[in-house]
Write a structure and sequence with these properties.
heterotrimer; B: about 100 residues; alpha+beta; Ubiquitin-like (UB roll); about 25% strand; C: about 300 residues; mainly alpha; globular; 1,2-phenylacetyl-CoA epoxidase subunit B (chain B); PaaB_sf (chain B); PaaB (chain B)
């Protein structure tokens, strides 16, 4: 692989990570003024801010790698559904607090493992982003772990809601561990994280938490994939419509 | 329908190493663990702290204003506890 | 000295009243009314701006807005915790808000229609709030004063970020400039109303001044705000919404046009665009959170009884 190819591949990879971050941040930020009580409302906004911060670092870096003068906002606001490459789990609607926390649990466990590896990346920027993000994620997981216990082992209603959420999201967790040709190249170059290798640890950790919360780990009976190739659920289009409309309504201006 | 109230916790922050913890306010939480986390989320949004204490408000025992005569006045007649009570020769008065 | 005399002695000497001190019933009630109204305003105030977080036109603006709205929530919490020292519970506070027995600032019954409103709200609404809050740092009730000091320290960025939005818009495209002017026009007068009725009409003013709950009158604070805003509008290159505004050499202040108090009372009395929406939103979020709060209690009780059995 030539240096230019490597740069191009890294740009695409970094964009994926940025897409995951911005879309999840958007979903969490929808909780603003809608939280179950004030303290939790504020805590959720901190998490949304953490993911937004990550999105900005990734997009800024992607723009730099691309070298065509685009900005973080061009990446966030001027790409369509088919160009967005986030994992599907991030774009699903927030539904209720149980769905939000179940998603966080899956993503947070994944991110603790993922970022731990990203710290070792030969790409210095990626390693530096990981150094910041890994601390945030440890705190996110602490929260989603505790909430899973409270909701799973709380009342009959909360148990049922949490179990539904886990069941509804389970089929979207598999693509977190997919590695395509692009990532394979970058793994070999010591830049990307080999997420396929994280699955056993992820499953072990998630199983332990769900079991502790008296929840049942779902069977692997269905799987939905496609985020990385721009094959999205219908939810993403609506999310982008909302996120991008103002920016696109006034092309080229400064905000 | 109102759920029973979450417990009230008082929050104390140490803003820098070497300083005392200072009371900054309160919040509601289910237990100490959660109170600590929310204190982090609510009272240190601008990295105001390096250490947090939380105490259940009902566990604080406070002196009453009515007691203040018997509590604090007795110290008023003990000026010898203060440095300025002692007159020293000028040459060494910065002691 | 009777408790009343002792209380008034402290007020007059500029000492703070603290939670466990004796205080007249009306002082307590007055504080509960004012601080909870202030707290509710922060909480309800999250909605108009929160309404734009998912649509913010740049990632930088999105981050700023999210932090700002989060701050409003935090300030609501500081104020709730101050009012809770007076022996009223969070549940009671929420109920009073939702049933309408407690008020919140009427400015939040105006809709945040455009992005320009994010500028105007930060600049004018927070700006007016800050003028009031700076004065309240010297209020006589200790926990309220301390909450105000904390809030003022944090809020300095709120007004600046709003003004920065206005600067960017007014130096931007024609459409952006028009957006800025429109937002200024819609929020200027309601911002002046935030200081409350004229002193002569204000039901609580005189006694609140005597007790040093309020430190400056509605009209004095409003004048301060009018004066400081003139230059800011000029720098933006926008048209001042008040055609009667005129410098008064003798007073050393600007004279300004009469506020439309009919509109003020009209909106307070439920005819604003968002009165119902704001309360319904709060009720819905609270009700949707009910099962979450119940789950927390159930889980804690299980943990506690498990601990006791183990002991």
């Amino acid at each position: 692989m030539t240096e230019t190819d490597l740069k191009q591949a890294t740009m695409q990879y970094v964009t994926r990570l940025g897409d995951d971050s911005i879309i999840l941040s958007h979903r969490i930020s929808e909780w603003c003024s809608n939280g179950p009580f004030l303290e939790e409302d504020l805590a959720l906004q901190n998490v949304a801010l953490d993911f937004l911060g990550r999105a900005r670092m990734y997009f800024t870096y992607a723009a730099e790698l691309e070298g065509e003068g685009r900005t973080e906002d061009d990446f966030a606001y001027l790409r369509d559904e088919r160009q967005y490459t986030n994992l599907l789990i991030n774009e699903l609607p927030r539904v209720d607090f149980a769905h939000t926390m179940a998603r966080q649990l899956f993503v947070d466990v994944f991110n603790t493992l993922f970022l731990q590896q990203q710290l070792q990346s030969k790409d210095e920027t990626l390693a530096a982003v990981a150094a910041k993000a890994v601390k945030e994620t440890r705190y996110h997981l602490r929260r989603s772990h505790e909430w899973t216990l409270r909701l799973g082992d709380g009342t009959a209603e909360s148990h049922q809601r949490m179990q539904n959420a886990v069941d509804n999201l389970w089929g979207y967790t598999h693509e977190m561990f997919d590695v395509d040709a692009l990532e394979q190249q970058l793994i070999e170059a010591g830049i990307a994280v080999d997420s396929a290798a994280l699955r056993p640890q992820w499953l072990e950790k998630v199983t332990a938490i769900l079991t502790e919360a008296t929840l049942t780990v779902p069977e692997d009976s269905w799987v939905v994939r496609g985020g990385r190739t721009g094959y999205h659920t219908e939810n993403l289009g609506h999310l982008l419509t909302e996120m991008q409309f103002l920016h696109r309504a006034h092309p080229g201006v400064t905000w | 329908m109102a759920t029973q109230e979450l417990d009230l916790y008082e929050v104390f922050l140490r803003s820098r190493r070497g300083l005392d913890h200072k009371h900054v306010g309160s919040l509601h939480a289910e237990d100490h663990e959660q109170a600590l986390e929310y204190a982090r989320d609510v009272y240190t949004r601008r990295s105001e702290g390096v250490s947090i204490w939380v105490v259940r408000s009902s566990d604080i025992c406070a002196s009453q204003e009515d007691d203040s005569d018997s509590f604090f006045d007795p110290s008023d007649d003990k000026p010898y506890r203060h440095a300025m009570y002692y007159e020293l020769p000028k040459a060494v008065d910065n002691m | 000295m009777t408790p009343e005399e002792n209380f008034m002695r402290k007020i007059e000497a500029g000492e703070k009243i603290e939670p466990k001190d004796w205080m007249p019933d009306d002082y307590r009630k007055n504080l509960i009314r004012q601080i909870s109204q202030h707290g509710h305003s922060e909480i309800i105030g999250m909605q108009p701006e929160g309404n734009w977080i998912t649509r913010a036109p740049s990632l930088r603006r999105k981050g700023i807005l999210l932090s700002k709205v989060q701050d409003e929530g935090g300030h609501g919490l500081y104020l709730y915790s101050a009012v809770e020292t007076l022996g009223i519970s969070r549940n009671e506070l929420i109920e009073a808000l939702q049933t309408g027995t407690a008020k919140y600032a009427s400015i939040f019954n105006y809709p945040a229609q455009t992005w320009g409103d994010m500028g105007a709200i930060g600049w004018l609404v927070d700006g007016a709030a800050i003028v009031n809050q700076v004065s309240l740092q010297r209020t006589s009730y200790g926990p309220y004063a301390r909450a105000m000091i904390r809030i003022c320290k944090e809020e300095s960025f709120h007004q600046r970020q709003g003004y920065e939005i206005m600067v960017t818009l007014s130096r931007g495209s024609a459409a952006q400039k028009a957006m800025a002017q429109d937002s200024l026009n819609r929020f200027y007068w309601p911002a002046l109303m935030m200081f409350g009725p004229h002193d002569s009409e204000s039901a609580h003013s005189a006694r609140s001044m005597k007790w040093k709950i309020k430190r400056e009158t509605n009209d004095d604070l409003r004048q301060k705000f009018v004066d400081q805003t003139v230059k800011q509008i000029e720098v933006l290159g926008l048209e001042h919404p008040d055609k009667d505004l005129k410098w008064n050499e003798e007073r050393g202040h600007y004279d300004f046009g009469e506020i439309d108090w009919d509109e003020f009372y009209n909106v307070i009395n439920g005819n604003g665009h968002a009165n119902r929406q704001r309360i319904e939103h709060h009720v819905r979020a609270h009700e949707e959170g009910e099962w979450v709060r119940e789950a927390m209690h159930a889980y804690r009780d299980k943990k506690r009884s498990a601990k006791q059995q183990a002991a």
